[in-house]
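Students often ask why inverse folding is considered easier than folding. One informal answer: many sequences map to the same fold, so there is more than one right answer. In these notes we will look at a single instance of the problem. The structure comes first.
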């Protein structure tokens, strides 16, 4: 199974990957403004929970790292620091899955939330489960960038599988689609497995015996809740295209933190007037989209969590529970108690 890659310029990602690159370069004496050159980002934005970035900006930071760093371990160091806890709902969904087989499946299903510069596929064949990373990029890379991104991805994948599993499970083998580099020893150090170079495709091979093992943080309720939220974030058909889709993606990037129409327009590099006109042509409005997002999250929280009505209302931006009840009735035609009961 593989995923459809997003556009390189879509600003829909929290800046955790960019921040990891900047942190590693800072330890090498490279200042953040240099690492961020050409991205339009400031160091302060890397710690802003509402900031959204694009794959293009991430790739620009990687290009800067290639140009500025003299340490061939840089992509491996970055990848080994990108813990799942930094990935928001995507990371929580993977950490709380109920088996490693489920982890492999969800890691691909939700990978669009993880600033992916190329696709991922996992295949189970007999005694082997294989992570495949096809040589198909969002933006065509140079040879140096291609190697940097593959090295980074290999380190990320090994780190994540280990974190989810909670027990020692390095890959059995790594396959690398280019000639053995002078720093080949770093592959063994960070991937902890045998590596073969000049292979047709980037791959990591694992023993399929691990697939039915239960991850250390497996939790049924948490898994259900965060997976549903990831489904919302990924977007159903209605949020995949046009200005409507762009607004949905911004509003769902950080559920519970709903920017105003002016803020959404700014993030989409347009004006409120232009955005309003585009939405009108698509027979919707900013308020309709916001109500749809809040309604979907309200139903999800009511039916998938034990949170109180007050807490849910607050998460959805209501300071008064009575207003939340009225809004929910308007959205769904049902009351709070009826929606709670329907989950059983």
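Output (designed amino acids):
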């Amino acid at each position: 199974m593989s995923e459809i890659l997003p556009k390189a310029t879509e600003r829909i990602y929290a800046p955790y990957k960019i921040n990891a690159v900047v942190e590693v370069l800072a330890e090498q004496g490279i200042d953040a403004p240099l690492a961020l050159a050409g991205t339009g980002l400031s160091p302060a934005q890397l710690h802003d929970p509402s900031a959204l970035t694009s794959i293009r900006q991430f790739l620009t930071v990687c290009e800067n790292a290639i140009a500025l760093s003299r340490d061939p371990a840089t992509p491996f160091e970055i990848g080994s620091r990108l813990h799942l806890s930094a990935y928001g709902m995507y990371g929580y969904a993977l950490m709380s899955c109920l088996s490693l087989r489920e982890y492999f499946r969800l890691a691909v299903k939700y990978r669009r939330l993880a600033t992916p510069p190329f696709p991922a596929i996992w295949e189970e064949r007999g005694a082997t489960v294989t992570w495949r990373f096809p040589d198909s990029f969002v933006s065509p890379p140079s040879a140096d960038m291609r190697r940097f991104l593959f090295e980074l991805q290999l380190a990320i994948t090994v780190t994540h599988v280990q974190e989810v599993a909670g027990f020692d499970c390095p890959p059995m083998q790594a396959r690398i689609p280019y000639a053995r580099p002078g720093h080949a020893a770093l592959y063994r150090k960070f991937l902890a497995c045998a590596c073969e170079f000049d292979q047709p495709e980037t791959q990591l091979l694992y023993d399929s015996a691990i697939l039915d093992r239960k991850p250390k943080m497996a939790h049924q309720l948490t898994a259900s809740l965060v997976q549903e939220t990831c489904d919302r974030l990924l977007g159903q058909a209605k949020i995949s295209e046009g200005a409507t889709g762009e607004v949905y993606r911004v509003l769902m990037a950080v559920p519970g933190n709903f920017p105003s129409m002016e803020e959404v327009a700014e993030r989409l590099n347009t004006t409120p007037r232009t955005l309003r006109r585009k939405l009108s042509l698509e027979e919707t409005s900013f308020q309709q989209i916001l109500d749809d997002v809040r309604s979907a999250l309200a139903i999800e929280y009511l039916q998938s969590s034990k949170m109180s009505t007050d807490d849910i209302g607050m998460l959805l931006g209501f300071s008064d529970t009575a207003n939340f009840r009225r809004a929910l009735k308007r959205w769904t035609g049902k009351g709070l108690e009826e929606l709670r009961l329907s989950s059983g």
